[in-house]
Specification:
By secondary structure, the chain is mainly α. 84% of the residues lie in helices and 0% in strands. It is built from three helices and no strands. The relative contact order is 0.12. Belongs to the FrmR/RcnR family. GO terms for molecular function: DNA binding; metal ion binding. One of its GO terms (biological process) is negative regulation of DNA-templated transcription.
Length: 96
């Protein structure tokens, strides 16, 4: 399978993961401090949503890269592909 080659997309994905990592550290701290389970569960749900969102974004970036390579790089194709993949990302975002 191919790797993501677009540096902007890779940076975006890494930033999303770093944010989720910070949230996880916060959850660990909450557990250590004996915070209420409901508060911890709420933060866990937020991290899961962040990771799901990152996964969807990675998938769409991959699709954009690979379909762009196969369909050619004309401005018209790129614009249409971007429009369709934005819709795909929105639809996949609704699954969570």
């Amino acid at each position: 399978m191919s790797q993501l080659t677009d540096e902007k997309n890779r940076t975006d994905l890494l930033n999303r993961l770093k944010r989720a990592e910070g949230q996880l550290r916060g959850i660990q701290r909450m557990i250590e401090e004996g915070q209420p389970c409901l508060d911890i569960a709420s933060q866990m749900a937020a991290v899961r949503k962040a990771l799901d969102s990152t996964y969807v974004r990675m998938t769409v970036c991959f699709m954009e890269q690979e379909l762009g390579n196969r369909l050619g790089d004309s401005a018209k194709n790129r614009k249409q592909l971007t429009e369709v993949l934005e819709e795909v990302q929105t639809l996949l975002g609704k699954v969570r």
